[in-house]
């Protein structure tokens, strides 16, 4: 195993064991490298790698800290990767969304608050079929995020956010706009909202399956 990989694992073990907790400042570089039995160069490389994936926060002139380790931070790298993928990889991402988003809609029916429903209703009410692509993309991202957030599961919400590529969504909505299907797609959002409002988990799940599958089918044809 590369020395840098060993350094990464050792820092990870310190976090997992609780020796380093979220928000904790790491010991000075010399002290930490000696206690871990690593060269300072290996430690620096490990810190850089862990900074990229948002496990560590390097503050110039202040030191290196463990981040909050919140799911939204740790899954940012996945969002970057999803944006880079094309063709078959995008379809695989949609297959994962097709598995998770209907479950999220069903779960949301059991825990969604009136305030969260009002927020989703505002999202739906504020967008029209004459909206431009960027507005439609922003609406779509917010609509699906709010449903996931209503589950109360931070990891599920962050994972679905990470799978929600802005690039792919822009491509899809451009196609939907050119195909004259904006009204139908917004109607699908309205139907899902009605199911959420009625706390009908089975209906919300079924409607979300149809909604995500429809977009997936469009992508397959547009390849």
Give the distance, in angstroms, between the N- and C-terminal Cα atoms. 40 Å
Which blocks of ≥5 consecutive residues have pLDDT under 50? Answer: none
Strand order of the largest sheet: 1-2
Mean pLDDT: 88
Given the helix and strand composition, which structural class is it?
mainly alpha
Helix count equals 12
Rg: 21 Å
The shape, in one word, is: elongated
**Biggest sheet character:** 2 strands, antiparallel
SSE layout:
Blueprint: H1 3-16, H2 29-36, H3 40-52, E1 56-59, E2 63-66, H4 71-74, H5 76-84, H6 88-111, H7 114-125, H8 133-149, H9 154-163, H10 166-178, H11 182-197, H12 201-222
Antiparallel strand pairs: 1-2
Describe this structure in words.
By secondary structure, this protein is mostly helical. 73% of the residues lie in helices and 4% in strands. The protein has helices at 3-16, 29-36, 40-52, 71-74, 76-84, 88-111, 114-125, 133-149, 154-163, 166-178, 182-197, 201-222, and strands at residues 56-59, 63-66. The protein has a two-stranded antiparallel sheet. A hairpin with a 3-residue loop joins strand 1 and strand 2 (63-66). Helix 1 (3-16) packs across helix 3 and helix 8 crosses helix 10 (166-178). 29% of the residues are buried.
Short description:
The protein is mostly helical.
């Amino acid at each position: 195993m590369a020395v840098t990989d060993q350094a990464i694992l050792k820092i990870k073990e310190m976090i997992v064991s609780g020796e380093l907790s979220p928000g904790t400042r790491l010991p000075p570089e010399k002290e930490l490298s000696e206690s871990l039995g690593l060269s300072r160069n290996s430690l620096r490389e490990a810190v850089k790698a862990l900074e990229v994936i948002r496990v560590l926060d390097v503050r110039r002139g202040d030191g290196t800290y463990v981040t909050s380790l919140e799911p939204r931070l740790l899954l940012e790298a996945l969002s970057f990767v999803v944006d880079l993928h094309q063709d078959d990889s995008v379809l695989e991402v949609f297959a994962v969304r097709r598995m998770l988003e209907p479950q999220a809609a069903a779960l949301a029916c059991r825990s969604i608050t009136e305030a969260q429903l009002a927020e989703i209703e505002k999202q739906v009410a504020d967008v029209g079929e004459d909206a431009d692509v960027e507005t439609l993309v922003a609406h779509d991202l917010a609509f699906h995020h709010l449903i996931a957030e209503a589950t109360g599961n931070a990891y599920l919400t962050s994972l679905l956010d990470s799978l929600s590529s802005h690039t792919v969504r822009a491509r899809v909505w451009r196609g939907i706009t050119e195909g004259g299907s904006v009204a139908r797609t917004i109607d699908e959002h309205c139907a899902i909202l009605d199911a959420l409002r009625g706390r009908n988990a089975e209906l919300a799940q079924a409607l979300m399956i149809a909604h995500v599958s429809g977009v997936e089918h469009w992508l397959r044809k547009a390849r």
